[in-house]
Design goal:
Distance between the termini: 48 Å
Strand content: 25-35%
Largest sheet: 6 strands, mixed
Helix content: 25-40%
Mean pLDDT: 88
Structural class: alpha+beta
Number of helices: 3
Order of helices and strands: HEEHEEEEH
Shape: elongated
């Protein structure tokens, strides 16, 4: 369900409940003035929420990829829909390639955590 920008805004608790019922955000922040910032762990989680909320429209979302200042590659997905009268800034970022830990580091961390195989 896509709302017009002038749609009546539902209460903050109601929109947060609706977010949790239709998606799996890891962070919801009230930015004031009818704006929410919502972060998702994965691009798939954000896409699933957009679909469940009826917000997967042409032009939404925007995907980007690049390299962070520390050299790690990333992919991100962002969308800025108006939903239930709230302006939503939704975002997800992933690091598609990660280097596995070397054997010595894995062994040391396992010992430190007290984990046994």
């Amino acid at each position: 369900m896509t709302d017009a920008p002038t749609a009546t805004r539902i209460p903050r608790r109601a929109v947060m409940a609706a977010l949790l019922l239709t998606g799996a955000p890891n962070t919801i922040r009230d930015l004031g003035d009818g704006k929410l910032s919502v972060d998702f762990d994965t691009i798939a989680d954000l896409r699933a929420w957009l679909t469940a909320a009826g917000l997967d429209t042409p032009g939404q979302p925007i995907e980007h990829q690049g390299t962070l200042t520390d050299g790690r590659p990333y992919r991100s997905l962002a969308a800025w829909p108006t939903w239930h009268g709230w302006k939503i800034s939704a975002h997800a970022m992933e690091h598609p390639t990660t280097t596995p830990l070397d054997t010595d580091t894995t062994t040391a961390l396992t010992a430190l955590a007290g984990v046994t195989s």
